[in-house]
Write a structure and sequence with these properties.
By secondary structure, the protein is an all-alpha fold. α1 packs antiparallel against α2 and α4 packs antiparallel against α5.
Length: 237
């Protein structure tokens, strides 16, 4: 297994543009009350940098590993979702919801169905059900079922990411742990969005949502380079 120090030395420099773009977003902190193409660009810029992060590993890397391609595709749909949510008050919230739903399907496929880990699935299923029960009284119209479908999709994605981490059997890698943490942060971010939009104002909601969201996307992007660990290990043996 590749050590965390090696990972930081290898992948850290490729993530510098992402960290800079994230800082730009929080420093500018453009008002959400005045949506514009510029504010959409600033919001999407960190995700664009994650595209570059994956592309920096080479087209041959992406061509050989389907999970990396799926995560890159998920990041592309995430950018579209971010752009739509800039204009959510103008009626584009459901469009953003659709883009992120596709993202979760792609991420779930990238994480795979092995190991199954039904216990983790049951726990995530219970948490997802409880979340929907709490949100349901505040939902109306098409959001009654749209939110239900979305929760099911992000819950499934979270299950597949968590299932890959087998700490008890010492069958884990830093990238599987990265995917797990990323998925959990994504769920926290989206639950905060839902509570803030449909239930009641959450203090500092935007900061919580964006900090957890950017961290989640970075960790999930990092999980895409897992297959390089195996390549490096084979070369050293």
């Amino acid at each position: 297994m590749v050590s965390p120090v090696t990972v930081v030395k290898s992948e850290g420099p490729k993530l510098v543009p992402f960290f800079k773009a994230t800082c730009v977003y929080f420093v500018l902190w453009l008002p959400t009350s005045s949506p514009s193409w510029f504010s959409a660009l600033i919001k999407c810029l960190p995700i664009f940098c994650l595209w570059v992060f994956l592309l920096a590993h080479g087209f041959s890397f992406l061509g050989e590993h389907s999970n990396a391609r799926k995560i890159l595709a998920g990041l592309i749909f995430s950018s579209l979702g971010d752009a739509f949510l800039i204009w959510q008050e103008q009626g584009y919230f459901s469009h953003g919801l659709l883009m992120f739903a596709i993202t979760h399907i792609l991420y779930s496929s990238a994480f795979g169905m092995k190991p199954l880990n039904l216990q983790a699935g049951l726990v995530i299923g219970a948490v997802s059900t409880l979340s929907y029960i709490l949100l349901y009284p505040y939902l109306s119209g098409p959001f009654t079922y749209l939110v239900a479908v979305y929760i099911a999709l992000i819950g499934f994605m979270g299950w597949r990411a968590i299932a890959g981490v087998q700490l008890a059997n010492d069958l884990w890698t830093w990238t599987k742990l990265s995917a797990c943490l990323g998925a959990m942060l994504f769920m926290v971010s989206d639950l905060t969005i839902a509570v803030n939009k449909f239930c009641f104002p959450v203090p500092h909601s935007r900061a919580i949502i964006m900090a957890t969201y950017y961290a989640a996307q970075m960790l999930i992007a990092l999980s895409a380079v897992e297959c390089q660990d195996a390549v490096v290990a084979r070369k050293r043996t």
